[in-house]
Amino acid sequence: MGERSSAEQFADQARLRQRINELPAVQARLVRMSYFEAKSHSEIAEALGMPLGTVKSHLRRAFLQLQSKVGGAL
Question: Coiled-coil ranges per the record (predicted)?
Fold first, then answer.
């Protein structure tokens, strides 16, 4: 397969951002911190004053929702 054009990659990223915005606010914030800011789960927990297990649970649910909406491309 050939490489994807930058326009296709941009469109995919825009769709992903739209789907993230459809998540509950807490989940969306955690996904942004994890995915776009490349923060570890422990860094997120510390920054937000949340238990690590809570951060992991929220992210797991968020990524499952995103997978179902985006078609498993994550």
Answer: none
Mean pLDDT score across all residues of the chain: 89
**Residue 63: φ, ψ to 5°:** -70, -30
Cβ–Cβ < 8 Å for 40, 48: no
pTM for the full predicted model: 0.79
Tokens of 3: 């490489």
- Report which DSSP code applies to 71: T
CB of 44 within 8 A of CB of 50? Answer: yes
Measured in Å, how far apart are the chain's first and last C-alpha atoms?
19
